[in-house]
Structures are given as C-alpha cells and as structure tokens.
Amino acid sequence: MVSGRLRCIGSIQHLKRKFGKDYILELKVKEPSQVPLIHTEILNLFPQAAQQERFSSLLTFKLPIADVYPLSQAFYKLETVKHNFNLEEYSLSQCTLEKVFLELFSRPELGNVDEEVDTTMRWKLLSYSDEP
Is residue 114 a part of any domain in this protein? Predict the structure, then answer.
C-alpha cells in the first residue's frame, strides 16, 4: 500500500518477475583510478547498463535481462573485465524484493499498477472432520 492505494499483490517470485526485471552488477575495484575505464568497458559490454551507485572503489549497475542472457556469456564478459582491470570481485544478482518495493514506491508512472491486479477473492468452504 502506498498513500492508501494498493500498488502490488502476489507471491515473492511473481513480484520479482513482474517488477524486478533487471540484474544488479556490483564491481569492487582495487585501483580507484581505473573506475572511469571500467565504467566505459561495462557500457561497451552491456549497452543498456545504468549506473546506480559509485563510490571510490565500488560501482553498481542495473542491467536489463536482455543484456545479461545468456548468463554464461555475461559471466564470460565479466571474467574478462576482472582479469583486464584487476578487479577485486564482482557480483551479478537478481533484483531483491526490497529493491522491487523501493522501485515501485519511487516510480509515479506505476500509478495504474493496481488496475492490473486481480483483487477478487475466491472463498471455499472447508469441510470439518473429526478424523486426524
């Protein structure tokens, strides 16, 4: 619920599949001076990547699913970047449920999301039995 309106309803996997359509790439850099070069290389490898955060030695990108699949190819590219730029580590993960909620609540263009949700309830009378 946001401002008294239903924004989403469903199981965790349903919500992640419907609203968390991006992967999160985190790169930990050993040499902060290489950050601009690494940023450029990530944009070359994943053209639709959007930088989310940037600290002295940590870069975070949002990658659309289309740029990541097949996963084997994405990891091959990331391993190449790791070796070429001497990265300390990297992480590629699905969007978390927390990030899905933050995204939903921060994007005003999703104002009609509740119209897509089937909020009807189906009731079923359960029979009572004394048997265990």
Answer: no
Q: Which residues contact 49 (CB under 8 A, 6 or more apart)?
A: 25, 42, 43, 61, 62, 63, 67
Q: What is the separation of C-alpha 14 from the centre of its chain, rounded to a whole number of angstroms?
A: 13
Give the pLDDT confidence of 85-125 residue by residue, as tens digits: 989 999 999 888 888 888 777 765 554 544 444 555 566 66
Cα gap 22→90, rounded to integer Å: 16
**Which DSSP letter does residue 110 get?**
G
CATH number at residue 91: 3.30.70.260
CA distance 110 to 90: 31
Please say if the pLDDT value at position 81 is more than 90: yes
Query: Does 93 map to a domain?
Result: yes
- What's the sign of the alpha-carbon dihedral 13, 17, 18, 20? positive
Spatial distance between the Cα atoms of 5 and 111, rounded to a whole number of angstroms = 9
What's this model's pTM, rounded to 2 decimal places? Answer: 0.69
Residue 127 counted as domain residue: no
